[in-house]
Amino acid sequence: MSIQAxxxxxxxxxxxxxxxxxxxxxxxxxxxxxSEVTVMQWNVLAQALSGGDDxxxxxxxxxxxxxxxxxxxxxxxxxxxxxxxxxxEVDCFSFLEKKLKPLGYDGRWVxxxxxxxxxMEGNMGPxxxxxxxxxxxxxxxxxxxxxxxxxxxxxNQTALVCKLKVKDNGHMLYVAVVHLKAKSGFxxxxxxxxxxxxxxxxxxxxxxxxIVCGDFNASPKEPVYQDFTNSDLELRSVYKTALSxxxxxxxxxxxxxAGTDGKNTESCKTIDYIWIRGxxxxxxxxxxxxxxxxxPDRLPSYKYPSDHFALACKLVFA
Length: 318
Known about the structure:
By secondary structure, the protein is an alpha+beta fold. It has a single domain, classed as Endonuclease/exonuclease/phosphatase (Deoxyribonuclease I, Chain A). The chain has seven helices and 15 strands. The protein has a seven-stranded mixed sheet. A six-stranded mixed sheet has the order 6-7-8-9-13-10. The chain has a two-stranded antiparallel ribbon with strand order 11-12. β6 (138-150) and β7 (153-166) form a beta hairpin.
C-alpha cells in the first residue's frame, strides 16, 4: 500500500469520529533543488504521560484518548511522508511498527532505562527514542544505543545512533535521535549530555554527514544549544538556517498545565531541533502553525495529538 492510499483510508476513520482537520502545514521551499531525503522530528507525547490531573487541563479528555490520538499521529506522519522518521516519548513502538511496515518502513527503538510511563496506571509500556526509515531509499548499516553520561556516570537519557546508506547514490550518513533531560534546574545535566553525544558523534561519524534530531528540552539560550552551534562538527540548525530572521521558530511546543498554586501555567518555547552537517543541502522546511490557528487551549487538542509540533525538512546531497 502507498502512503497516499493509507492516508485516504485514515481520513475515513477520522471522519467517522467527527474529528476536525489537523492544523494546516506546508513545506516551504528554501532552494530549487530536487529533494532526496525528507527528515521528520517529533516528540509524539507518550500516551501514559498525556493524562493526570496536572496535565493539559484545557484539553478535552476525549482528545487525549488513544482511539483518537493514534489516528492523528498516523495522519501527521502519513501527510509528511518522511524518508527518515525520528521520534521521542515513543511508548507505542509496536503499534507504529505494525502500521508503518506495510508502507515500506523498518524501525529501531531504544527505551529509557527508567521510563516514567511505567509509573502510570494502564500504561502501554516504557517510552523511548525511535527511528523509522524507508527501505526502498535507505539501508541500515549499523545501530547503536547510546546511554548519555554525566562525568562518566550513566543517566536516564539515551540516544539512538544509526548509520544509513542512501541506495541511489551510495552516500552514507549518521542519524542520531535524542531526548535530553526535561524540566528547569537541569540545564547543567543537559549540557553534559549534549557534550557526551557530540563527542560520541565526533569519534563515530568522523567525516560522514550527520543528522541530529531531538527534543533537547532546552531553549537556544541554554549552554547545550550553544555547544551544538559551536561544535567542531560544524552542525547547522535547519530552521535557523532557513528562516529569514536567522533565528529558531517562535515555538515548537505550546501547552497549558495546572500549576501547584492552583493556577494554570502556560509554556510556549522552542526546544526541538534538527541539526545537519556535511554535504547535506537544505531545500525545504515544514511550516509551524500560526498562533491564531492553534487556538486558546494550545496543545494537545482535537486538531493536534502532541504538545510538540513535528519538525521536518527536505535535504539533498550537494
